């Protein structure tokens, strides 16, 4: 019998392939960066009132006391910045979530973080009259943190650690319970319902909060994500493989949950529970960037704002002079994507 041997590709070929992949990734991110700039400009130029682009640019350079100046430098600027930060936070949180749970259809709501933030806001409004901006941001952060800690503790109960399957099951159970409590409170407290129903739909129209309350926690969350990005790539391969590669799995997963809490709490408090951004963007980023989690996170950080601003702009155009809230549009687009992923995964396992 003739022996056959497997010949490894020359190191030069491997280096060339790696270089080509990195060049392709950089080009994709550069294109997304240009798209983000275009979306930001269009977001400033398009609204329920028609203001010429030249006038918009003039008001950005030299604001005055006119109503047009308030619309451009106040409402639209705040809305655009909010869309960029919220889109970035949700997309990066989704990329981290999919690595931590090793679930390609995971999103930030899977661990109950968004539900915890929503429940805390409803509880505060119902029993404490907490309707101010700072109170809602604080409640959302506390609720998200408690939800993440509770879900993680329940999933780790009984030994064996907080496995991805346990995290998902505990998160789904908590989200269902929180949703039931929220609906009950809204029925019991009509005033809370009037306050909550505008926030619950998911929108970028809120302008009554200090921007540092949104940007500050998101920056801290991003720093934490960058600190554990290499460990996230290893965890995505499995806990045993990650441990063999020297990754401290429990530490990386714990830091990731803190980062998720900060990112999701800030985004939820500012814009309400916007769904599917954390699902769609990391999925597309993983296909474009490959298995390296740091590249996926970077791509998600740029693509998330592009998706959210595009949906917001589309909502202004379709229903002018009124508008469709961005949360409705992302849900409308995201539901088919989720169904497609379910059938695709089913086909892969068949």
UniProtKB/TrEMBL annotation:
Gene Ontology cellular component list: plasma membrane
Subcellular location: Cell membrane
Gene expressing this chain: fepD_3
Single GO molecular function: transmembrane transporter activity
SUPFAM superfamilies: ABC transporter involved in vitamin B12 uptake, BtuC (SSF81345)
PANTHER family from the UniProt entry: FE(3+) DICITRATE TRANSPORT SYSTEM PERMEASE PROTEIN FECC-RELATED (PTHR30472:SF1), FERRIC ENTEROBACTIN TRANSPORT SYSTEM PERMEASE PROTEIN (PTHR30472)
Pfam family of the protein (one): FecCD
Gene Ontology terms describing biological process: siderophore-iron import into cell
Name of the protein described by the UniProt record: Ferric enterobactin transport system permease protein FepD
Topological category with respect to the lipid bilayer: Multi-pass membrane protein
Family in the record: Belongs to the binding-protein-dependent transport system permease family. FecCD subfamily.
Keyword match Transmembrane: yes
Keyword annotations: Cell membrane, Membrane, Transmembrane, Transmembrane helix, Transport
Organism: Corynebacterium provencense
Segments traversing the membrane: 26-46, 80-97, 109-129, 135-155, 167-189, 209-229, 250-274, 294-314, 326-343
